[in-house]
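JOB MANIFEST
job_type = single_chain_structure
chain_count = 1
residues = 78
[input]
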Amino acid sequence: MKLATLSIGGQPCAAVGLSNGTWLDIAKAGASFDSLQSIIDAGDEAVSALRAVVSQAEAGDHAEAVLADPTLMAPIPQ
């Protein structure tokens, strides 16, 4: 699972990579994590939730949360 912090409209966004090379906004897709730090803090619970969201997105759900042309940021912004 690829995770990244991306810049969308100048704001940081926690995202997960999909198999087609696009990125999914984790919070917009319904997971309760808004940063990579919150994912790290949640541990196994976060991994399970992200796997479910990725599976749903790969099946065609959460199209509104797929990010177009994001900019990569530091994983955990200061």
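[summary]
The chain has a mean pLDDT of 94.
The radius of gyration is 11 Å.
exit_status = 0
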